[in-house]
Every structure is written in structure tokens, then in C-alpha cells.
């Protein structure tokens, strides 16, 4: 239904791990009755001075629009770690949302963040915290993962209270573990439930 409330699962993924997390988060969102998940990505940033990429990606999620962001009931945003911060394409997209900041379009909506790294201590928490900063500026209500999820204390891979995370390994071949998958779904479900409560 076109007017159904949705949680925007916005991500950038280079090697597919962040995309895999986004898909599990979307499953968590859609486990909540009355809430849909809307998967969106952002185009890569080119060093070229002219745009050379296609307007629509050849595969995967379509590119996010300002309307997708402005009209969401909640947001869960993900990026691979780049030197302890979000990847440039996602930051570039957010840098273009000043009009939504001025209008307060995202104010009081719930938000969460997620990330994937090549090494276990490769900046997961710093990436999640710095990704949260622009969302706080937008007036969003940040929600992490509470320690009621046993996976946070038992995991030997990704998983933080600041948001779901994944350890891809130096060769990028590690798939999502059961704990990581469970936390992704839990994060999606939590933001969806908060979105319904805050909307009422």
C-alpha cells in the first residue's frame, strides 16, 4: 500500500556485507505488523568532475530520494567502516539534506545505525557513533541495542549496543554469523516498534 508507514533502511555497500545486514534488518522491520521496510542505497562518489554513473543501479536496491528520507516513519542507516567513519557516499548523501534539517522533517523519528568492518576492532563503535551525529542534528531519536539481547555478551564476532555490526574478515569472506543476524533483525524490529509508538 502506497501510504503504509515504513522504516527506511538506507545503506551503502561495496562488497555486499552491509547489504546483507540491511536485508536482515528489513526482515526485522517487517516482523512488526503495520510497518514496512524500504531498502535504499546511495550512488558511489566519483573522483570525476562529471557524473558518469547510471541514474538507476544495475542491480540491488534503488537509490534513495529525499522523499524516501523525509516521509519515513523511522530510519536505520548502515555503512562499511572507512577509517573509523562512514563511507563517503553515505556522508555525501547526508550532506545534501539541509532542507530536511531546516524543515524538521526527521525530528522525533526513531533511528539506528549499523556497520561492517574488515577487522574485529576496525572502528565498529566509532563508525556507529559518528554515523549517529548527523541524525542527532536532524532531531531524530537514537536507539541502540539493549543488553536484553544475550548475543551482545556472547558474540565472538560483531555486535555492539550502539547498533548491529559485522566482522567480514581481512579477506572479506566471513558471512553473517547467527548472532550478527539475530542482532540485525532485533534492531529492525526495535526501530519499527518505536516508529509505531512515536507516530501515535
Number of helical regions = 7
Compute the separation of the termini in Å.
19 Å
> How many whole angstroms does the radius of gyration measure?
16 Å
Assembly status: single chain
Q: Could you give the order of the helices and strands?
A: EHEHEEHHEHEHEH
Tell me, briefly, the overall form.
globular
Name the structural class: alpha/beta
| Sheet with the most strands, sense and barrel status | 7 strands, mixed
CATH superfamily: Flavodoxin domain
Descriptive account of the structure:
Helices cover 36% and strands 18% of the residues. By secondary structure, it is of the alpha/beta class. It has one domain (6-44, 57-199): Flavodoxin domain (Rossmann fold, 3-Layer(aba) Sandwich), CATH 3.40.50.360. Strands 1, 2, 3, 4, 5, 6 and 7 form a seven-stranded mixed β-sheet that branches. The mean pLDDT is 93.
How do the helices and strands line up, and which of them pair or pack?
Elements: E1 6-11, H1 17-30, E2 36-41, H2 66-70, E3 74-82, E4 85-86, H3 88-95, H4 98-103, E5 110-117, H5 124-137, E6 141-142, H6 151-154, E7 165-167, H7 178-199
Parallel strand pairs: 1-2, 1-3, 3-5, 5-6, 5-7
Antiparallel strand pairs: 3-4
Helix pairs in contact: 1-7
Amino acid at each position: 500500500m502506497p501510504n503504509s508507514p515504513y522504516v527506511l533502511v538506507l545503506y551503502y555497500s561495496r562488497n555486499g556485507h552491509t547489504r546483507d545486514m540491511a536485508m536482515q534488518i528489513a526482515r526485522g522491520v517487517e516482523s512488526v505488523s503495520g510497518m514496512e521496510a524500504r531498502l535504499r542505497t546511495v550512488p558511489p562518489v566519483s573522483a570525476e568532475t562529471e557524473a558518469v554513473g547510471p541514474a538507476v543501479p544495475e542491480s540491488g536496491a534503488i537509490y534513495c530520494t529525499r522523499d524516501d528520507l523525509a516521509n519515513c516513519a523511522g530510519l536505520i542507516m548502515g555503512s562499511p567502516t572507512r577509517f573509523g567513519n562512514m563511507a563517503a557516499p553515505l556522508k555525501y548523501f547526508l550532506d545534501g539534506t539541509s532542507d530536511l534539517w531546516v524543515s524538521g522533517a526527521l525530528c522525533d523519528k526513531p533511528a539506528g545505525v549499523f556497520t561492517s568492518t574488515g577487522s574485529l576492532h576496525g572502528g565498529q563503535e566509532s563508525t556507529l557513533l559518528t554515523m549517529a551525529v548527523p541524525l542527532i542534528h536532524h532531531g531524530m531519536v537514537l536507539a541502540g541495542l539493549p543488553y536484553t539481547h544475550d548475543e551482545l555478551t556472547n558474540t565472538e564476532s560483531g555486535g555492539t549496543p550502539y547498533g548491529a555490526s559485522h566482522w567480514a574478515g581481512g579477506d572479506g569472506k566471513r558471512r553473517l554469523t547467527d548472532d550478527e543476524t539475530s542482532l540485525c533483525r532485533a534492531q529492525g524490529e526495535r526501530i519499527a516498534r518505536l516508529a509505531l509508538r512515536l507516530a501515535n
